[in-house]
Amino acid sequence: MATLSIRDLKVEHKKKTAIHKLNFEANTGDIIGFIGADGAGKSSALNAIAGVIDFSGSITYKDTTFTSPKESEKIKVNIGYMPQGIGLVLYNTLSVQEHLNFFTDIKNIKIDKDFIDYKEHLLVMAGLEKFLERRVENLSGGMMQKLSLVCTMLHRPSLLILDEPTTGVDPLSRLELWKILKQNSQDFGTISIISTAYMQEASKMDQILLFDNGEVIAKGNNKELLALVEPFVYEKVEDDSDSIITVLDTTYSLKVLQTTHKKPTLEALFFTNALKKNTLLPKLEISKNHTNQNMDSVVMRASKLTKVFGNFVANKDIDLELRRGEILGLLGANGAGKTTFIKMLLGLIPIDSGELFLLNKNIKNIEDRIELKEKIGYVSQHFALYNDMSVKENMLFFSSMHKIKRETALGLIEKYSKELGFDKYLDDMPKDLPLGINQRFSLSVALLHDPVVLFLDEPTSGVDAIARAQFWELLDILKKNRNISILITTHYMSEAEYCDRVVLLKDGEKIADDSVKELYKKHPEAKDFENIFLDYYKVVPDET
Asked: Does the model's pTM come out above 0.70?
């Protein structure tokens, strides 16, 4: 008999069915993966299994069956649950150490040598052992996510439910996380149910459920699912990166990141399914704008930029150039200094030493920033929009912030919402939007005042593979049609392939700055860009 059994699970939200009769089983030590697009039903299924929302059907764990959240209370002591979202289980005013103390207390954990050793192992895995006194409000998004993981796993739950736990977490930390999950599986028999946006993680799972529109469209291990990928037309694109493949049918064309020499991956399965059902987001269009064609060849130059917080050096002597019409990827582990660097460029925090030139102007004071603010667009990690205002109201508000006349703003809203395919969502609230749509909406807000430089801080974090591919297609169109310069941070190493150039930070210092093509030449053994990243961090990837 299976340790965990899900029978005819159905979840409804008002008049919408989020999950249509889900059935699966898991045994002690199994790692189960939920993979699917935004809104496919993964979170609803996880919430039901965790006993936090109403459902129909039955869930049996060991010898206990429950059919409602109330009945699930008797096994809650065995469950560790981490909801989707950055730092949702955390408190901004508490430090890392205070969180550990708090969760140890509310879980009634016995404090002995075994627990202390386990806790320290989790902290080292998360890279938080040096930041015990830092408050959550001063942690990066990735560090918040890792602290949430540590707090969820402190009591060693036998049923671990994680909703996109690695979103916003760098490859190095993801490797360490999977070591912990595998160890818990082997040593304690923990059943882990994990949703993820990283398709590469599928190979580490014992069983994978692919979700689409509330239903499981395929089930099996990674090898079994890849065998289901139907052959479809691949056309190699002559490109500098030598790793772009275009997926074609008679109605739609998309670029999918995939190394040319590899077999089709799970992304291909989702694309073929979406193409068959015609469920891809609306095709993208961005009108051309030639007013920026005479920009200087270098639009931003940082020289020896340094930022220090107390005794902690966040950025040290960083030199960097952003050129006209270039997409520059800024990569690094959590805490490497990426967000701090972008905040210095934007003037959100002061520069301690070094020089910054934007659009050929030396930025020395707040007046210099104000003069150039209309030429810069920014999308933050958390999509800094107002959840109590509709999409249209948000866009009108940000238009007024840039002193755009209302009549002009209404025209821009109509134009961008149609071009970026979210016109039918204008009256919705941002929190109710699919992440892929929220992503496009957030970008359109940054484009309203027609900037010549865009700073994007992890805009694809937590977004499904299809929406990510379409978003990068959008950035490519912006680059070509608007000649916009784009500086972007990401933890999806495959996205480095889309960049013209990549800069890699480690411990606040620049350790690499080159084109993707040249970086592959320097690392001939690398199977993909994640291998290059790990090579710079002197880490051997797990081949399982």
From this structure: yes
